[in-house]
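ok trying this again, last paste got cut off
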Amino acid sequence: MKRYLPFSIIIIILALTFIYPSVEVNSLTDPKFNTGDIAWMLMSTALVLIMTPGLAFFYGGMVTKKNVISTMLQSIICMVIVTIMWGIFGFSLAFGNDVHGVIGNPGTYFMMKGMMGNATWKLAPTIPILLFAMYQLKFAIITPALITGAFAGRIRFNSYIIFVCLFTIFIFAPLAHCTWHPDGLLSKLGVLDFAGGTVVHMSAGWAALASALYLKRRTEVDHTPARVTYVIIGTGLLWFGWFGFNAGSAFGANHLAVLALATSTTASAAAGLTWIFFDMLRGRKPSAMGTCIGAVVGLVAITPAAGYVSIPHSLAIGIISAVISNLVVEWRTRTTIDDTLDVFPCHGVGGMVGMVLTGVFASHDINPNNTTGDGLFFGHTHLFFVQCIALVVVSIFSFFGSLLLLKITDMISPLQVSDEEERIGLDISQHGEKL
């Protein structure tokens, strides 16, 4: 029966395309579209999409040779699965009509209905809502892909697919709605998250920690990276795509997009340099791996603050995040937590540091859309406490919610591969392929 289940899902999706053809066209008389904004958001959407293959290279180069294909495929498959879910009901869950501030009505844009023509999203009025939906889709794709580094080399592919579906529905969509929908609970509280500190990085980081704790340790804990060159390529693609990730979150070709691009660049550079200098201070060699990891940590940390802080403060965010994440990585290696590629110390901790420092360095003068107020650096405490409250709430929700979803997934389909499958590698045991 199980072998026919995937085919049945395809049949259901095909049937929906006939039942809900989505031919409803919105014809506003004065949409006020800006062609420059549309062009930039089209480019940003493509930039964010390239981040997922970049992540595949980044993670794929770090694992052992026998797990490269499986690790990279875990990122790529998210592009397939989440896109289908997003088009049917995922976008509605995140940005549909508000339901008690925690989730969207799944029927609002079911099968993308009413999104043709001149329809717009209220916070991005100069671009079509369909473009806004496609842009946000790329965030939904990369978030579960980030988690894969925590259980690389020891999770069954079929079970992973189930977990991705559950995580997108029950963790990502509610966080996106709460944070980025104007009627969401965190949005009303005044939480600032320019491009995904809570929604993407903290949720993925805490889910990674939950996964590492839930799954038993690998039989081969120590491993040699398969291709450091893959890691370097992945870093370049991630940094390149991050311009769309952060600067695109301005939803237009405007000064905030320029600011976010600049702060992202400087924070990443500062973090990459700090990481290797910090390693050298402790008697280690400046490595390519350390440089790449540091650069990505800086990009993670600046994400929530990208459109709210100045260039000097972006440098501070990069430096501080690199030191803290480096120390947490060192701490993790001394524990029994088998977070294979240190997703929690880099993405989870990096996202949390970024959220807190947004509450420290954010300025209303830099971004007038910041109605919560200036940060702690300017002598104000309200925004800082709001960011800390969000950090605690999102951490609890993401960690325990992910633990529950892992348990449910395990009940449906066992998560852990056998010791023999792990020994021969997931490339062969799960996919029948090898480098």
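PB: full thing came through this time. The first helix runs from residue 5 to 19.
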